[in-house]
Design goal:
The protein is an alpha/beta fold. Helices cover about 35% and strands about 20% of the residues. β10, α9 and β11 form a beta-alpha-beta unit. The two termini are about 40 Å apart. About 50% of the residues are buried.
Length: about 475
């Protein structure tokens, strides 16, 4: 393809996945599945979901200047007369399957591009029950300090987000660091087919999506381990040294396996906490100012170091990469203000909630600590016991008050309230957001630290913005 350096065009896309092009052969630079961000340089892929059909938003995307669309044949046949001559349509039987096939073809085309340097594209995949987005960002930060590196934006890591992100790769890239997230059995196999990682890291095996991934941690491990299923002898897999399924994850891998952590990350010489301001990390004689707080983020840094060094990173590259780290939205994000908010509401499972509580318990403050703990989703039959564990963790915490929110969080509240010698009024539960917001506003006062931790679907970032209030400063 002549324009591979600038991005694909519609004729190439059609040929790569068997779609039919109706209209002019426009080029595009990126793929979008959200019509709100589609524009003149993007291809909008209309996907049919359980609740929303992307075809319903094509007109809105047109209004924002988008002119390239991947649509399903049934929709096109019913609507082809509505749009003007400025729009071009790729028509396929199934838009998701077409996107995935074209994404794999684009990645292969870029790897074979005549601008490729002598070293082949190094493809690094990151998965795990928690921490994978942070680890992906840290690895990419380190690698891009000495090699041309591309990463998938944010957490575009699924069977939709990963292939859409493939179109950001160009022939001159030397390293691609992509997060690979799954929430159903078999999804990892599709992601591996599209990306084919040479090097992979599993952050941990926890309970995230346990209800959708076989109902047990073993079932989750079975699926996460599939990230290395494409290895043919030269692949490298990294796993946490303390993972209860560590040995199983390393079995029958067609390549090298390594561990990461305080004991096994070579060159790690210790770290001193700076509380909400992160860590001073010592590595091979260097002192690294690492801004992400909490023991879980320190472990994420060690994971990134272990993998990046095996891929050629020097100590200076490690320092430069880690010192560029900033908190991602809703992940250990510190909002300083009259009331300090630890906004950790992007995702939640029993392990990550326990880690957040442990971190906030250790924070030094002249005020009180208030923990807002919301429901954890997609835990299946484990949901009740997982929420009860959270409730017991909360009851043993240093929090002056714990506010539980959501239907499933009632189990956590009951476990906390039923613990030995509960303090009257310390625990509170509601299913109503306005009631929660009012209770927190009445409880929190100047100098307090407020932790907000819940599954993303509860949208508790609203509460974080509300309570951090006037003069809040985002310091990540």
């Amino acid at each position: 393809m002549d324009k591979i350096n600038a991005g694909p065009d519609l004729a190439w896309f059609a040929a790569s996945c068997g779609a039919v092009l109706h209209g002019d052969n426009y080029g595009f630079e990126r793929v979008e599945t959200d019509s709100r961000v589609a524009s003149g340089d993007s291809l909008f892929v209309a996907l049919k979901g359980e609740r929303v059909d992307g075809h319903d938003f094509i007109s809105g995307a047109c209004d924002r200047g988008c002119r390239c669309f991947l649509v399903e044949s049934a929709w096109y046949n019913a609507n082809k007369g509505i749009f003007g001559s400025g729009q071009a349509f790729l028509v396929a039987t199934n838009t998701l399957e077409a996107l995935q096939a074209a994404a794999r073809a684009w990645r292969i085309a870029c790897e074979a591009g005549n601008d490729r340097r002598s070293v082949p594209l190094l493809k690094i995949g990151v998965t795990g029950s928690s921490g994978k987005t942070t680890v992906k960002e840290l690895i990419a930060n380190i690698m891009e300090s000495f090699k041309s590196t591309i990463r998938n934006p944010g957490n575009l890591n699924s069977e939709i987000g990963l292939p859409a992100s493939m179109f950001l790769i160009r022939p001159w890239h030397e390293v691609a660091v992509f997060e690979m997230g799954i929430n159903r059995i078999g999804e990892m196999d599709k992601l591996v087919e599209i990306f084919e990682p040479d090097c992979a890291l599993i952050t941990n095996i926890g309970t995230a999506h346990i209800g959708l991934l076989g109902g047990s941690k073993q079932g989750i491990a079975d699926q996460k381990k599939r990230i290395a299923s494409g290895f043919s002898g030269n692949g490298r897999l990294f796993v946490w040294e303390e993972d209860s399924l560590r040995d199983y994850l390393r079995e029958e891998i067609q390549g090298g396996t390594y561990t990461f952590g305080p004991r096994s990350t070579d060159g790690f010489e210790g770290a001193r906490t700076r509380g909400l301001d992160g860590w001073l990390l010592q590595y091979k004689g260097l002192v690294i100012n690492f801004a992400l707080p909490g023991a879980h983020n320190l472990l994420d840094a060690l994971a990134a170091i272990s993998l990046a060094v095996r891929c050629g990173a020097s100590p200076d590259a490690v320092k430069k990469g880690l010192e560029k780290a900033v908190a991602l939205f809703g992940r250990s994000e510190i909002l300083h203000g009259d009331i300090t908010v630890v906004n950790d509401c992007y995702n939640a499972n029993a392990e990550s909630v326990a880690a957040a509580i442990e971190f906030c318990d250790a924070v030094e403050t002249n005020g009180r600590k208030i923990y807002v703990l919301g429901s954890m989703k997609e835990l299946g039959e484990e949901s009740k016991s997982a929420h009860e564990k959270v409730g017991l963790s909360a009851s043993r915490s240093n929090a002056s008050r714990v506010l539980f929110y959501g239907a499933e969080a009632l189990w956590a509240y009951e476990a906390a309230a039923g613990s030995s010698d509960p303090v009257a009024g310390r625990f509170f539960h509601t299913n109503d957001y306005e009631t929660l917001a009012s209770e927190l506003a009445q409880s929190a006062r100047s100098g307090d630290v407020v932790l907000i931790k819940a599954s993303r679907s509860l949208a508790l970032e609203r509460l974080a913005m509300q309570i951090s209030g006037k003069g809040a400063e985002h310091v990540s």
